[in-house]
Amino acid sequence: MKFAIITHVIHIKENKEFFGYGPYIHEMNIWLKYVDEVIIVAPLKDGRPIAIDVSYKHDKIDFRKVADFNFINFGRTLSSVLKLPLIFYKIFFAMKNADHIHLRCPGNMGLIGCFVQILFPKKIKTAKYAGNWDHNSEQPFTYKIQKWILSNTFLTRNMEVLVYGNWKYNSKNIKPFFTASYSESEKGLINKPKLNPVAEFMFVGSLVSGKRPIYAIKLIEGLVSRQVNVSLNIYGDGSEREEIQYYIEKNNLTDFIYLHGNQNRNSIKKAYQKSHFVILPSKSEGWPKAIAEGMFWGCVPLATKVSCIPYMLDSGKRGILLEMDLTKDVEQIKDLMVNQNTFLKKSQKAMEWSRNFTTDVFEKEIAKLLMK
């Protein structure tokens, strides 16, 4: 089988290998176990891989480079319009050459892929919509276009669309799905340290406004001001790092909050294992891996009520759904920390739920999709 991937993920080539964002590549390597040849249409930039990057594991990769583009301002829009004909051309011929077409959405490449795949109604196709599928949520117009095309069974034929969560009013080609990071063999026993003398919190993700890392910091600041012994370890990097560093120093939080930057998968895993809580106050999510991974290792999740997160947390039985009211959220975290037994029950429920979604189960589901 010749498998074509259309993705916005930016790649780097080093020593004949193609590297990209770790969680995405780890997932795609599971798909690639079941294909003979791979065509990848994606942006490629100069540079060297960083800690969070990993490489594809396949012997036959045909990488077709396209320019990175976006429509965030007039200048970028004008430049992108000039790039589009060549990008359309490369996506069209990748799809024409493939036996199975796979779109990664939402994103700019996914948007173009949604339009081009209409021209191949008989080809077998899948799309992974990694964003929020909730039809009532506020989303960029381009995301709404992608969702509309993907769920329109007249325009989009012979495709299964994998989405996070089980939503009402879906068309017949929409398949509730999940993602996974850890295998059955990693289901080791976890003995969480006591919340005293220090309760450890984690934030894992890009340091950008959409993830709201500053709110995570303010939660810790609120607990510190109430004489609660806590620490927060932040893993990730992004445009808000300098602002975050300044806030930490300005508010005398350097003894409680630590910035670690991007770290590899094993380092993050060890951090989950010794942490009590994982925080993710995002504005929007699909299936937040940081939450699912933390839960796998018994971290109690603190997350916003977006996308399928209320389902993941069982409406708060497996964690805390943040109200995004700082006083209320600090108090409900503090109340949970008062009772070690209550914390341990939530921790156990979180772990038991997350361990239903291993890479072994994920691989079986992917194999079913590709063997049809």
Describe this structure in words.
This protein is α/β, with parallel strands linked by helices and 372 residues long. It contains 12 helices and 16 strands. Strands 1, 2, 3, 4, 5, 6, 7, 8, 9 and 10 form a 10-stranded mixed beta sheet that branches. It has a 6-stranded parallel beta sheet with strand order 13-12-11-14-15-16, with helices on both faces. Helix 5 (213-225) packs across helix 10 (326-338). The longest helix is centred in the first third of the chain and has 24 residues, at 74-97. 41% of the residues are buried.
Strand-helix topology:
Elements (H helix, E strand, L loop, with lengths): L1 E5 L4 E4 L2 E5 H11 L4 E9 L7 E3 L5 E6 L7 H24 L2 E6 L2 H9 L7 E6 L11 H11 L7 E6 L9 E4 L21 E6 L8 H13 L4 E6 L5 H10 L6 E5 L3 H10 L2 E4 L8 H8 L3 E4 L5 H4 L7 E2 L4 H13 L1 H15 L4 H12 L2
Parallel strand pairs: 1-4, 1-7, 2-4, 4-6, 7-8, 8-9, 9-10, 11-12, 11-14, 12-13, 14-15, 15-16
Antiparallel strand pairs: 2-3, 3-5
